[in-house]
Sequence to fold (705 residues):
Amino acid sequence: MKSHSLILTLSALLLLGACKNMKEERLQYPVTAKVDTVDVYFGTEVPDPYRWLENDTSAETGAWVKTQNEVTDAYLAKIPFRGKLKERLTELWDYPKQGAPFKRGDRYFFFANNGIQNQDVLYTMTSLDAEPTVLLDPNTMSEDGTVALSDLEVSKDGKTLAYAIASAGSDWTEIRLMDIASGEVLKDQVRWVKFSGIAWYKDGFYYSRYPEPARGSELSGKNEFHKVYYHKLGTPQESDALVYENKEFPQRLYNISVTEDESYLVLYEHESSTGNAFYVRKAADTRAPFQPIITSFDNINAVVDNIGNKLLVNTNIAAPRNRVVLVDPASPDPAGWINVIPEKEEVLEGASVYGDRLVTTYIKDATSRVYIYTLDGILERELMLPGLGSLGSLSGQKASNELFYSFTSFTFPNAIYRYDLGTGEGALYKEAAIDFDGDAYETKQVFYTSKDGTRVPMFIVHRKGLALNGKNPTMLYGYGGFNISLTPGFSVSRLVFLEQGGVFAMPNLRGGGEYGEEWHKAGTKLQKQNVFDDFIAAAEYLIAEGYTTPEKLAIHGGSNGGLLVGACMTQRPELFRVALPAVGVMDMLRFHKFTIGWAWTGDYGSSDNEEEFRYLLGYSPLHNLVPETCYPATLVTTADHDDRVVPAHSFKFIARLQEVQDCAHPVLIRIETKAGHGAGKPTAKRIEEAADMYAFMMYNLGMTL
Fold:
């Protein structure tokens, strides 16, 4: 690699010339300094002139961020309906919200928000008829709402709360403890926790952490040497017992779970985003080694619970759409596993033991189903959901027939139901009241054909009576990766767009988990182009069917979905009028060099492999921006504390896009401060971001408010 000093100053501004065949006046963009940096991959030289933007703590990067935000803020301030849109968003957001209750010991717990509180509040009550009391309010932890709860677990006896807090959107968390009866926060503090659960056992809990990072590298340094510890209540972190580490493989993740009766510890090992090994040991045998059950990373395995001295396991070994099997740890060879729930046409998403039954959740054509089985795999009944939509959560206990679940759809907010596993009877427990008439809108599911002939489903949402005249502003949203399924979900921010006649479309692209592991694999590594082809084909379907035209079409996606938007806007810039890539993976040659990026090679491959390098270079959004091209109006969004997809991806992409843009379509970046990849973002920031994003999109689609 060759690297030299900056050759242009940040303060320089370039006035771009008049745009061909466009009435808009081109914006003035900051000229981003370049460095003479060239990487050589297998004999191929790849320039990286904006490499210096990877230094997220430098004064130069800070000055660049400030200048870019100033340009973006000035543009957004000129949109005449931006303020009105924010007012309507705030009105829509301001309704009481509640999550499904769960029970530990003799208490119920639930989260609620009175409307626009920055963070949800944890409540507790001694019975469903009792008056709830506040147990933990994250809104009191910071003035601006940027401290959030990222995880919590109540001890099995219901007496102690362990909760993880994250600041400014970072993935780093700190675990604290509370005595539930008194509300007293205990002295215990566990720091530098990341990608960890909280698994209670006896008078303490298991958790996973990294070594303390070097100062200045907290948000961008590579995360290595994940370790599992046990923390005993009332002791300092320095005395926590090291339970497991693997010095031979620094880039692996480890987590422990405990079976319901505390008989077994289950150790999960992850090498990438795809597949996991797992090991078990008797919880009481603290000196015994973990016994391997599955040591490869080719499949996904999750222990549901134990039945005596055997384990119920949800696995996709020899079952791409998953099955539940009974495994004897003393004889773990998969050839001896007993099928409890065989693979079926629907995809098994999850299984839990509640009320001494197996409660299973499935996906059928990207909508939820729930089936209830006996522990030996006999189907008792289907739990009938209110309609075609998504199961939000399930909560229950092994020894109780009481079950709570939440359900939602595109046009109706979360509703909570209480269900009796013994009688099969259920009823609505809580529903939300919002200032939006969901009955005025309709949701369709269509199937279209992708480039290679694959049949792909897509949801389309719009006001009833929509005219298919090709003039409807449309937002196409996608993800397509990491075995994640997109199912119908309620989004407050999307409602303003629908109210103004917008069409929302969401295809279920390959790379996701909607049809099992084969569907996922078909959108990974050297088949990643299938994901982009599916998304492009969705756009072409919407145009061919009269929903919209390229001049009225916007595309949106976040994280891996940001990569999707970046790849599609560079491959087919004429097909879209607006592009909204959020916290996207834009540099496909260097993503694995930051924080947890190495774990994504299971989906993406790696530039360290010659064949995969050439494939990645062929679609990497940063490397496929071409001079003298008119790209869609683009608003890139990221945040300064994003230590999942580091903001350098977005920084480098927008710098290059501003350099090559050959028309007056604005190409801007919005960089949030004291925020991260998205989790825990306070309501105030979410409303502001949504207002800016929708104002930009609607303005550039010719809409108003």
Remarks:
- Confidence is low (pLDDT under 50) at residues 1-23.
- Residues 345-433 form one domain.
- Residues 54 and 648 are 5 Å apart (CA to CA).
- The first strand starts at residue 13 and ends at 15.
